[in-house]
């Protein structure tokens, strides 16, 4: 297909496609004449991926270029190739400087989070951006005087892991690497607001049940947000 057809099928303006070509985000087509090239389905797939990285994922051109470089490097396995796309997504949190008064609390919480992940048997790199994000979130909660023990974090972890298993099973259905990376970015970026919204809706429902029901009804209802309160809760999440 010619550049104009590639633009029409992808929905990306010709000028933008040319920009991606200049930046090395899209491989050149096969020359047909001195001024024209031919593009294939692989260019269409790559164009979709580039748009997902830049538009959905909010990456810079350099970050997108890094993701594509790892994707094309045979030295990396599928786990690393999908993982680097997730690592490029924001937010990116830096720990306080060693001289910062808050560094002691940061190190304490970071150690507790790492210990919890080890207890759960989660295989996570120390460089994982989400690890720093979680540490900062817990530090903020504690610094404001709210309860934030690892038991509460464990409950969230136990609830989220079966969801991650389901999502990764969907991504595994994409054998083409470009499509799998695109799906990884989409699930990570687009579904996080859904998870947050469902949590808030669940809070509203639980509050309504507790405050609008009689004492007997409230006492007899299990807390749906705590997997430890019901032997069937984790099973129900896994089978959803």
Q: Tags for this entry?
A:
2 strands, mainly alpha, two-stranded antiparallel ribbon, 240 residues, disordered C terminus, elongated, single chain
Descriptive overview:
With 240 residues, the chain is mainly α. It has eleven helices and two strands; from the N terminus they run H-H-E-E-H-H-H-H-H-H-H-H-H. The chain has helices at 3-10, 14-22, 41-56, 61-71, 78-88, 103-120, 129-143, 150-171, 177-212, 215-220, 233-238; strands at residues 30-31, 37-38. Helix 4 (61-71) packs antiparallel against helix 5 (78-88), helix 5 (78-88) crosses helix 9 (177-212) and helix 6 packs across helix 7. It is elongated and about 70 Å long. 16% of the residues are buried.
The number of strands is 2
Our estimate of the beta-strand percent is under 5%
What would the principal axes of the Cα set say about the shape? elongated
Ranges where pLDDT stays below 50 over 5 or more residues in a row are 230-240
CA-based gyration radius: 23 Å
Q: How many strands, which pairing sense, and closed or not: the largest β-sheet?
A: 2 strands, antiparallel
Give the N-terminus to C-terminus distance in angstroms.
42 Å
**SS-derived structural category:** mainly alpha
Q: In what order do the strands lie side by side in the largest sheet? A: 1-2
DSSP helix count?
A: 11
Helix share, percent? 55-70%
Mean model confidence by pLDDT: 88
Instruction: Output the helix-strand order.
Output: HHEEHHHHHHHHH
Furnish the topology, listing elements before pairings.
Blueprint: H1 3-10, H2 14-22, E1 30-31, E2 37-38, H3 41-56, H4 61-71, H5 78-88, H6 103-120, H7 129-143, H8 150-171, H9 177-212, H10 215-220, H11 233-238
Antiparallel strand pairs: 1-2
């Amino acid at each position: 297909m010619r550049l104009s057809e590639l633009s029409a099928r992808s929905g990306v303006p010709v000028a933008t496609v040319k920009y991606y070509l200049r930046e090395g985000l899209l491989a050149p087509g096969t020359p047909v004449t001195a001024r024209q090239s031919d593009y294939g389905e692989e260019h269409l797939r790559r164009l979709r991926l580039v748009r997902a990285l830049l538009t959905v994922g909010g990456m810079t051109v350099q970050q997108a270029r890094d993701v594509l470089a790892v994707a094309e490097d045979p030295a990396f396995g599928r786990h690393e190739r999908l993982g680097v796309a997730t690592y490029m997504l924001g937010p990116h949190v830096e720990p306080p400087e060693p001289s910062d008064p808050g560094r002691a609390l940061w190190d304490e919480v970071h150690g507790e989070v790492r210990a919890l992940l080890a207890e759960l048997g989660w295989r996570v790199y120390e460089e994982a951006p989400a690890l720093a994000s979680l540490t900062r979130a817990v530090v903020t909660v504690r610094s404001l005087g709210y309860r934030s023990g690892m038991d509460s974090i464990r409950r969230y972890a136990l609830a989220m892991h079966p969801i991650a298993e389901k999502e990764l099973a969907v991504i595994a259905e994409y054998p083409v690497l470009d499509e799998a990376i695109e799906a990884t970015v989409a699930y990570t970026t687009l579904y996080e607001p859904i998870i947050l919204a469902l949590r808030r809706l669940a809070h509203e429902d639980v509050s309504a049940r507790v405050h609008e029901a009689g004492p007997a009804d409230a006492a007899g209802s299990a807390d749906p947000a705590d997997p430890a309160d019901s032997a069937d809760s984790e099973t129900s999440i896994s089978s959803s």
